[in-house]
Amino acid sequence: MAFYLAIVSPLDTPLFELQFASSKPAPPSSAASGSFPSWSTFSNGDGAAAPAQQAAQGEKHVLQMVAHAALDAVEEVSEGTASLYLKAVDRHNEWTVSAFIASNVKFVLLHDAKNDDGIRLFFGDVWELYVKASLNPFQTVNTPIRNPAFETKVRASAKRFL
Questions:
Q1: Most buried of the four, 6, 135, 141, 144, by CB within 10 Å?
Q2: Mind telling me which Gene3D superfamilies this protein's record contains (predicted)?
Q3: Spatial separation of the C-alpha atoms in residues 8 and 110, rounded to whole Å
């Protein structure tokens, strides 16, 4: 199972991005042979893919495009509901887009497996981490978060819930 998290400012600029794979085993009903979708440029060990660094860079651009293209759908769905957690607001190939909106900051998660409760809990945890990071006097509002401790904590939350 693969995931891509983007935290987007009210001005639709990325504040934080993270691409990661789940530590939990994929459910048996999954049609994908690896942890990333079949159209992914990541190598599945067959040697046919590009070198890992080039593949990761190409994958990142696709994920950024999908996440930011889904922002319109996220805003559309959020207008019709009072809920902060928006599950499955958009789809692109094998990716499903879920979102969490709090104080005009959008947390967008691309995922290829269904885990609504885990994703909801993950969003709640990441929101709490974001609030703590934004309260840091050395963090400027609506600027990218470059704190390695923040990334470590987000990865730990992903490992726990996803």
A1: 6
A2: 3.30.450.70
A3: 13
